[in-house]
Structure formats: C-alpha cells, structure tokens
Amino acid sequence: MNLVIDIGNTVVKIAVFGVDEQMIEVVYASTEINHEWRDFISKFPIDKAIVSSVIALPAAMLNYLSSLSIPVLYMNAETTVPIVNLYKTPKTLGCDRLAAVVGANFICPGNNLLVIDAGTCITYDFIDSDGRYHGGNISPGLDMRFKALHHFTGKLPMLDTVEETLPLGQDTTSAIRAGVWRGIEYEIDGYIRQLTRKYSNLFIFLTGGNAFSFDDSVKSIIFADRFLVLKGLNRILNFNNGSI
Known about the structure:
single chain; Nucleotidyltransferase, domain 5; 5-stranded mixed β-sheet; 34% helix
C-alpha cells in the first residue's frame, strides 16, 4: 500500500492507496505530528510513501517519517513524472500544481485538460492531449480576496464565510460576498470559454475546497474531484517505483 501526504498552506491530507491505484481512505490533519497521524498510518501495511509540501517540513515531521522505516519520496523539481513538463522554471512550480495535472492526465488521458484548483490560491493549469504540461496562472483565492478588501480599505468589514449570494448585493455585506464569489465564478468561466475556443475537446477538472456553480453550457465538461492532487501524487510514486 502507498502512503500519500499532501501538505498545503493550511491543512495536511493523508491518504492510503491500494495496488489498484484506488484510494482506500483519507484524513485531514494539522502539520503537527500527533495521534491523528499515528493512528491513521498505523492502520495500514504501508510499503512506500510520497510527501509533497508547499511549506518547509518541520524537523519533527521529518523525524517521524524517517521512523516509519519505509522508502519515502520527497517530491521536488527533480522528481521524475509521467508527463512532459514544459514549465520554464520547474524549481518554482508548486508540487501540488504538477501533481494535479498528473492526476488529471491519468484519469482522462489523451485529452486537452484544464485543471482548476480552488484553494488558498486559485490555480489554472493546462496539459495537452499529448501529455505535455504547458503551465498556468495563479489568482487570489476566496479567503485572500475577503482579507484584501478588508485590509486595503478603511471601512469594509472582514468576512470569512460565503452565504447565499445575489446577482447584485443589497447592502455592504452582501455586495462583498456577491462581488468576491461571482467574481471568481466569472473568472473561472472566462478561462474555460477562452480555452474551449482554442481546444474543442477540452475537459476541465475542478479540485480544491470550494464548489462553484456554472451554466449548462460548461457543466458537461467539468469533473469535480477533491482528491486530484492525492491521486496525482500516488501516480508519481508508482511511476518512480516502476509500478506503471
């Protein structure tokens, strides 16, 4: 069995995959090594592991992973991946972004794919039907937009939740919510429409912590997968161990 650990800016996802590349179980944990980590990992006969992190790994975490006595692949810019990476500065490319396109390409091979990850930031990444990753864009995420409106103005309140949004806000609070939420939806819709004009067989993978609504003209080509990065990391681990 494979242990896959994805360490983001705010949360850690820990998953176990079987030999058939199916995810068996996943938990969300903090970056602090505690009983959540130990109890979950001890449940399974782990053979090997992969770790992807957007932060510097704490010494306690490195020590714990070393104590597992299994091969651990720490993903970085030199890690071999089963796609062609055309990014001009691979050392600056987030491992989560690369893993997401690997996951999408594994699930839907032979197609042009736009991968949208709506997390702390919103990333847009494109891989073509020949498995060549061309790069993508980075945009502020939901919470970041709320914080920016509050921080860089004198009177706008800080909001941290999204309730039902109207097409047009009817007070300051609803105006902020509608502006941020609808702005992201229109932004995503713009990327989709631009690329579908260029690539007729484009499919979109949407992952991350936020769910958005789209009109019927694009719903049929959108696949929502919260665990796309984990699936991509598992694919990379197997690729580096000659399992595929």
